[in-house]
Design a protein that fits this description.
Number of helices: 13
Number of strands: 20
Oligomer: single chain
Shape: elongated
Radius of gyration: 33 Å
Structural class: alpha+beta
Strand content: 15-25%
Strand order of the largest sheet: 8-17-16-15-11-14
């Protein structure tokens, strides 16, 4: 089972594309697996034969578990890894398999990871370890079976088919001559459940596709046999003792018509498990803060017009989040096994509503990216998720998550933390008014941080949004002095339409001052002066060319007013009182 994301705890084997005993070629897809957020193909690493299948369709196992073995032309199963996915219930906590589970006349060895090593039999019948174990559990003599594997080896599916054909017949059906045997189509996990519950698959009516028998069909048959038909409020515990089935209401007794019943998909089921675990284990506290976003929206529009048009409000929100996380690093961390693990990189995850469920691709090392780089990466990740073409690398390493439901008209909500992260930010819709605003909802793990810490973090975040020039300046520093992109060789990313040079921070301030001065000059019927801006170590110097229709004194007063009203006044030290020269 591949590791699909650094927080992956379990994976689902959704489908075996080839059957045990089939030939495969290198890079052929042999199985499809699912994690919490993604679906991935497992491919053959060499030409050969799928000689052993250890994990059945529909089973969930931890990453690193052996799913099966592909043997090359001159290879055998003698040196193959043990089928670690076939541990007994007692082995879950690190115990060992009982010797009774092994075939008579065999010995077992423990591998370094706690799995049971493959058994060596004194007989001459070649068989896969999974087949030997299953045969031993049910007293099947391997010499009675015709193996369908390489060189006539008995495979687990051979044993399962034998068991299907020789299942005990109920007492009321002792006349076997009157019984018409049928091949039951179902998954290996369903076959195992039927054996555990003592249910004959030939007696079960399948409700799956093409009459396939499902686990629900087996449980229903077992319930009927025990006289426990659809008793409201009573659940059915699985014999492994590892899980308990949820209670089921009797729809007929309650006068309810069920149109359709289907299990959650692998991805959706894992999301449900992780969110339930987070809500159960992490004491969630949510702080709400009303934030004015008028200036942030205007700044995003101005930057988009000056650059390549890719920057949006969400990108400024990411930049403001980076600023707050750098100032309060306890929120840029993982909480695992009772320990807080601070992370050097600021990896902001953005929740995306995809067809398979909520997916959170990660803008890695956001603290080192300029605004254009953040915007470009966010757009790439969003497109990849919506097109279903994202990779595992796109999902790994998130340290903080932003979930925006504003586009759905949601005013505010309490988001659930994505473990092992410490906090998550929920964003509500932008509301119109004299100053447009929205609600930010910060949910945090109270085991790790206190409410006062969260309030300070939220205050720093709010400052970055309400004074966007602050984050513009910081992201410009991350972009090697440019607002747009750190690599000046890419002209399409850093030049304004019609410009021959990259757009610098000096130029952005100059354009803003001229716009502010234009608003003031219009009220007095003055001509708009020209500006030259130099930002040096946070101490700006501004040269103004006085037009012929306005005095030098009024030109200087106009320049001071434009500086005080600039969107960059709160971010650039000294811009409210700069050194102004009138020419």
């Amino acid at each position: 089972m591949p590791m699909m994301g650094n927080t992956m705890e379990i994976g689902l084997l959704a489908e075996w594309v080839v059957d045990e005993g089939d030939s495969v070629e290198e890079d052929d897809v042999i199985a499809v697996v699912e994690s919490e957020k993604a679906v991935a193909d497992v491919v053959a690493s060499q030409d050969g034969t799928l000689a052993r299948v250890d994990v059945g369709e529909g089973e969930e196992v931890p990453p690193g578990t052996v799913l099966g073995i592909v043997l090359g032309r001159d290879e055998s199963l003698d040196g193959a890894p043990a089928p670690r996915s076939r541990v007994e219930p007692g082995e879950i906590d690190g115990g060992t398999a009982p010797e009774a589970a092994l075939p008579t006349g065999t010995t077992s060895e423990q591998d370094p990871d706690g799995g049971v090593a493959s058994a060596e039999t004194t007989g001459d019948v070649p068989a896969a370890p999974g087949a030997r174990r299953l045969a031993a559990e049910h007293g099947v003599d391997l010499t009675d079976l015709d193996g369908t594997g390489p060189d006539g080896a008995v495979l687990k599916t051979d044993v399962e088919e034998h068991l299907d054909q020789t299942e005990p017949v109920p007492a009321e059906r002792t006349d076997r001559s009157s019984v018409t045997e049928r091949r039951v189509f179902t998954s290996p996990s369903t076959r195992r459940l039927a054996r555990e519950l003592g249910v004959s698959l030939t007696d079960v009516g399948g409700t799956g596709i093409g009459g396939r028998v499902t686990e629900s069909d087996v449980r229903a048959a077992a319930s009927n046999a025990d006289g426990r038909e659809s008793t409201p409020g009573i659940g059915t515990a699985r014999s492994e003792g590892l899980a308990t089935e949820p209670t089921r209401n009797d729809a007929d007794a309650l006068g309810v018509t069920i149109d359709e019943e289907r299990p959650l998909s692998g991805v959706r089921r894992t999301i449900a498990a992780r969110m339930s675990r987070s809500a159960r284990e992490a004491p969630h506290v949510t702080l709400n803060r009303e934030v004015e976003v008028e200036r942030a929206l205007q700044t995003a529009e101005e930057l988009a017009q000056a650059g390549d048009g890719s920057i949006g409000f969400t990108d400024l929100l990411v930049a403001a989040t980076v600023r707050a996380l750098e100032r309060y690093p306890d929120f840029n961390a993982w909480f695992e096994d009772g320990r807080l693990r601070s992370v050097s990189e600021v990896n902001v995850a953005i929740a995306v509503d995809a067809a398979a469920g909520l997916v959170t691709p990660v803008i890695r090392e956001s603290e080192r990216r300029s605004l254009v780089e953040i915007a470009r990466e966010r757009r790439r990740l969003t497109d990849a998720v919506l097109d279903g073409e994202y990779s595992m690398d796109d999902l790994r390493g998130g340290t903080f998550t932003i979930s925006n439901l504003g586009m759905f008209g949601v005013d505010s909500f309490d988001p659930i933390i994505n473990p092992p992260q410490v906090a998550i930010l929920g964003v509500g819709r932008v509301r119109d008014g004299d100053e447009r605003s929205c609600t930010l909802s910060l949910s945090f793990d109270h085991r790790v941080v206190d409410g006062a810490d969260a309030a300070r973090f939220l205050d720093a975040l709010t400052t970055g949004i309400e004074a966007p020039a602050v984050v513009v300046t910081e992201r410009s520093a991350a972009g090697a002095g440019e607002w747009g992109v750190s690599d000046t060789s890419s002209a399409t990313d850093s030049r304004a339409p019609g410009d021959d040079e990259p757009v610098s921070m000096d130029e952005l301030v100059r354009r803003d001052l001229r716009e502010r001065a234009g608003d003031i000059a219009a009220a007095h019927d003055w001509s708009v002066p020209t500006f030259e801006v130099h930002l040096e170590d946070g101490h700006p110097s501004i040269t103004v060319q006085a037009p012929g229709t306005i005095s030098r004194a009024n030109t200087k007063r106009l320049a001071y007013a434009a500086c005080r009203e600039s969107v960059y006044a709160e971010a650039i030290t000294g811009l409210r009182d700069p050194e102004i020269t009138v020419e």
